[in-house]
Design a protein that fits this description.
The protein contains 14 helices and 18 strands. By secondary structure, it is an alpha/beta fold. The chain folds into 2 domains: 115 residues, Gyrase A, domain 2 (2-Layer Sandwich), CATH 3.30.1360.180; 260 residues, Alkaline Phosphatase, subunit A (3-Layer(aba) Sandwich). Strands 2-18-9-1-8-6-7 form a 7-stranded mixed sheet. The chain has a 4-stranded antiparallel sheet with strand order 12-13-15-14. The chain has a 3-stranded antiparallel sheet with strand order 3-4-5, with no helix packed on it. α8 packs parallel to α10 and α9 runs antiparallel to α10. The chain is globular and about 65 Å long.
């Protein structure tokens, strides 16, 4: 088990760059351009980041799952690679359930306290799927629980001067989670890629007041999970995004707008033969107080106090080719989740230990009501493919 704070992660593992090179710092740059400066996270240090101040209209388009390496390797000759300025890191773990709250609050898990797709909430003594806001397994909607109370964060829109809009897929536009963080932003639902881009175009052209538009496209992520990020299906969809953005770019001329395109995380195709299934490891399973939480690439483990030695021994020996074992508190101490003051429930939401997957390994368990996972593409780990996201800039 790794416990030395100074060398917690091996050098080849990518850590979030909260000092100026992450999506958190991008949000600091956007809010700074509209009158609010974070006291914890500096603005983005990447080239042209200061230009955000020069534009009346700011558009942030998050393409779920679009990793930096994918744009570099697959985007030759296209508009996305042609406007690629640099790379940024996501947050830890790099996944939608941690990064989307970062885009919506301006802060990483250190402050918003949401630590993975499945998060254990001591407030209700249950493991929940954060973004759909349902209990794991039963998928029972969480009643009488406010997402803002769980995060103790204000929506980023409340820090931005001027008009705010959020352009979201119709199936989640008015979800409990999205409504909680939309604040004064006007919600615009859409169904297709061209509808999303046309909605953004119309909002840009409405008036000359300072405007911030946050848009989200989920299909790249869905296809990558289903078919694998290296699949023909994903590459064909990437080409479609590139073509639609080429059309969209033509409408920006003279609009005094900056369009920033990035992602919440990248992707890695898993190796099914290297999946650690908890049910196949009874010696491990009997040590666990709760189902796993977190992600298939970073699993948080809640372990019975009298079985911690057994758990550590099994993870460090039997599973050593597949995972690295960490004390969860060491991840906090080494600033994996962020900088500054912690959310008061952060430690409770990452278990006693974390199993960080090696190579293309995934770590999975099942609870009643769940089907066996079929995902080929995964994320949440600390590889370059998962952690690095693009910083793409188009202007008009």
């Amino acid at each position: 088990m790794r416990g030395d704070d100074s060398v917690l992660l091996p050098s080849h593992i990518v850590r979030p760059d909260y000092q100026g090179g992450s999506i958190v710092n991008l949000m600091s740059s956007i809010t700074a351009a509209r009158g609010y400066r974070s006291s914890t996270y500096p603005v983005l240090t990447h080239r042209r980041a200061d230009d955000i101040h020069d534009f009346t209209k700011i558009v942030l388009l998050v393409i779920d799952g679009l990793g930096y390496n994918y744009v570099v390797n697959k985007g030759r000759g296209g508009i996305l690679q042609g406007h690629l300025k640099d790379r940024m890191t996501s947050v830890f773990p790099p996944t939608t359930a941690t990064a989307i709250p970062t885009f919506l609050t301006g802060n990483p898990p250190q402050q918003h306290g949401l630590t993975g797709w499945f998060t254990y909430l001591a407030e209700i003594d249950d493991v929940v799927a954060v973004l759909p806001f349902v209990k794991r397994g039963s998928k029972t909607p969480l009643q009488a629980v406010d997402p803002r109370e769980l995060t103790r964060q204000r929506p980023v829109f409340e820090h931005i001067e001027g008009r705010c809009h959020t352009v979201m897929p119709s199936e989640i536009a008015y979800s409990t989670f999205n409504l909680a963080f939309s604040s004064q932003a006007t919600i615009h639902p859409y169904q297709t890629l061209d509808q999303m881009l046309d909605t953004i175009t119309n909002l840009i052209g409405q008036d000359q007041e300072p405007t911030f538009i946050h848009a989200y496209w989920p299909e790249f992520d869905r296809l990558s999970h289903t078919y694998g990020v290296a699949s023909y299906h994903v590459h064909r969809h990437f080409d479609l995004i590139d073509a639609e953005l080429t059309r969209f770019k033509k409408n920006l001329a003279g609009a005094n707008v900056i369009v920033i395109i990035t992602a919440d995380h990248g992707f890695l195709d898993s190796d099914p033969d290297r999946t650690v299934r908890v049910e196949d490891h009874p010696t491990l399973s009997e040590t666990l107080m709760l189902p796993l939480s977190g992600e298939p690439r970073v699993a948080y483990c809640y372990v019975y106090p009298d079985k911690r030695e057994q758990f550590e021994s099994y993870a460090n020996n039997t599973l050593s080719d597949h995972v690295i074992l960490y004390r969860s508190r060491d991840l906090i101490n080494n600033h994996l989740f962020g900088l500054g003051e912690c959310h008061p429930c952060l430690a409770n939401r990452i278990g006693h230990y974390a199993l960080v997957a090696k190579d293309k390994v995934t770590i999975r368990d099942r609870v009643a009501g769940e089907r066996p996972p079929q995902d080929i593409g995964v994320h949440g780990g600390t590889s370059e493919d998962e952690m690095y996201v693009p910083f793409i800039v188009m202007t008009g």
